[in-house]
Amino acid sequence: MTTNSLTDVPGFRVGHAVVAGPDALSGTTVVLAPVGGAVAAVEVRGGGPGTRETDALDPRNVVERIDAVVLTGGSAFGLDAVGGVMAWLEEQGRGVRVGPEPRHVVPVVPAACVFDLGRGGNWLARPDASVGRAAAEAAGAAGREVAEGNVGAGTGAVVGGLKGGVGTASVTLASGVTVAALAVVNAVGSPVDPYTGVLYGEYGAGPLRIPDPRIHAAAQEQIERSRARMGLPPLNTTLAVVATDAPLSRPQAQKLAGTAHDGLARAIRPVHLMHDGDTVFALATGAHGATETADAPGPLSPEELNDVLAAGADVVARAIVRGVRAAESVEGHTGLSGEAGGTFPSYRDLYGS
């Protein structure tokens, strides 16, 4: 049975953790690969990225497989969460073997962050190693269900003045290959067509639910007030992980990471701005087609690869829609440090379900 989530790709698990405190609005999400890892690649197209270990994923470099990807709030400060994930992986004996003992490993953990500083009222409330470890432990113990909305790295996410969040989606192709995505929706651009109130990512995806014009007009006023309260410049980022069980080479995974950005462009407008850090990771296990006598299935034909590339963009767009629809409104307050947090309405509250 499918869950319409990243975990429909066999072996992947997702864990979330949040920064504690009444005036905190941030967290971390860990995508854990199956034991043995996954081929990985990344494509960064935003003008203001915050990343870690992305150079290791260049197909020209030595790392063949990775065990986890970290998506985190807290801007560049939040990349401290990676330390906790690495420590947990080391304890599991997972990472690049660098010595004679099984425990002699160095986990390679690519990561990217979103900007959410101060949105809960406390500028200093951001993920650290303990939050990263909690998310890794949650992923290690998780089943196939994936929480969406105001969870993990989506806890403080905002998209075009609306509350953003985590969303996920999957598809199984005619070949039997599964392609899935998880997105943290936190963009300068908007997911909403200003003329109709329809989510951009829903165009072409089935029958449209067009909001009543009066509801749309009232919603647009609230969104504009939310944008104004955020001030300028807007500092955001949308992150995504695309996973598949197709037998992709590292260059093919790199191509998937690039074409998956088309899903961002379909669901959010505009994207890839100077104040965005839009980043997409691609992970491939190659498990589809592997048998007891052929653990390494043959490469995909160009036609088969095209299907995977197209599906990657589709599931990213759907994951963004689901993240926006799952998000819940946040009412701002003044934190213990005297800083004012934000008030961010959700699409669901403005437009209905």
Provide the descriptors you would attach to this structure in a database record:
353 residues; alpha+beta; 5-stranded mixed β-sheet; 7 helices; 14 strands
Summarize the helices and strands and which ones pair or pack:
Blueprint: E1 13-18, E2 27-32, E3 39-44, E4 51-52, E5 68-72, H1 81-91, E6 96-97, E7 105-106, E8 111-113, H2 129-141, E9 158-159, E10 162-163, E11 166-172, E12 178-184, H3 213-230, E13 239-244, H4 250-259, H5 261-267, E14 279-284, H6 302-326, H7 347-351
Parallel strand pairs: 5-8, 13-14
Antiparallel strand pairs: 1-2, 2-5, 3-14, 4-8, 6-7, 9-10, 11-12, 12-13
Written overview of the protein:
By secondary structure, the chain is α+β, with helices and mostly antiparallel strands. The mean pLDDT is 92. Helices cover 25% and strands 18% of the residues. The chain has helices at 81-91, 129-141, 213-230, 250-259, 261-267, 302-326, 347-351; strands at 13-18, 27-32, 39-44, 51-52, 68-72, 96-97, 105-106, 111-113, 158-159, 162-163, 166-172, 178-184, 239-244, 279-284. It is built from 7 helices and 14 strands. A 5-stranded mixed beta sheet has the order 1-2-5-8-4, covered by helices on one side. The protein has a 5-stranded mixed beta sheet with strand order 3-14-13-12-11. A two-stranded antiparallel sheet has the order 6-7. The radius of gyration is 19 Å and the shape is globular.
